[in-house]
Amino acid sequence: MADTVMKQPMVKQEPKHPPVLLPHVLREPLQGFVDFIREQGVVSLAVGLVLGVASKSVVDSLVNNIFNPIIGVLIGGENLSNKAICLKSEAGKCVSSLGYGHVLSDFLSFLIVAALVYFAVKGLKLDRLEKKKAAQVEEAAK
């Protein structure tokens, strides 16, 4: 005769992490931070950071190799990053100068990266809002 074994439904249990062993004074503030690291998407944050650094290098190349020469020609002269104001000259050579071209070039890079981040975040928020609205409309229809 075959034995019948009753199977109990499996209940998904959250993994329990061992508590961080810290002195009592530090336990509460740091335990919250450790819980945050475990629960939140720190890996997602790291991936975002790597992508941000990579996009910065692409934007820097775009600014240095395309925008700076064009802007330099438009304002009369050479590459924008070479623009400077001579503060002190000796024997016909500029000894000390203010390189405002580099500052403008870096500011242009910053503006482009800031715009990319803004539109990426705005796009993600709009996507989430559209999903929430669709879920609300679907729920209201029920």
3D architecture notes:
With 142 residues, the protein is mostly helical. It has one domain: Large-conductance mechanosensitive channel, MscL, domain 1 (Non-ribosomal Peptide Synthetase Peptidyl Carrier Protein, Chain A, Orthogonal Bundle). Helix content is 64%, strand content 8%. The chain has a two-stranded antiparallel sheet with strand order 1-2. A hairpin with a 2-residue loop joins strand 1 and strand 2.
SSE arrangement:
Layout: H1 24-39, H2 42-74, E1 85-90, E2 93-98, H3 100-141
Antiparallel strand pairs: 1-2
Helix pairs in contact: 2-3
User: CATH class, please?
Assistant: Mainly Alpha
For the CA atoms, what is the radius of gyration?
29 Å
Largest sheet: 2 strands, antiparallel
Distance between the termini: 50 Å
**pLDDT < 50 stretches:** none
Count of extended strands: 2
Mean pLDDT: 76
Helix content: 55-70%
Order of helices and strands: HHEEH
CATH topology: Non-ribosomal Peptide Synthetase Peptidyl Carrier Protein, Chain A
Count of distinct structural domains: 1
In the sheet with the most strands, the strands line up as 1-2
User: CATH homologous superfamily name?
Assistant: Large-conductance mechanosensitive channel, MscL, domain 1
- The CATH architecture comes to Orthogonal Bundle
The shape is: elongated
Number of contiguous helices: 3
Strand proportion, as a percent range, falls in 5-15%
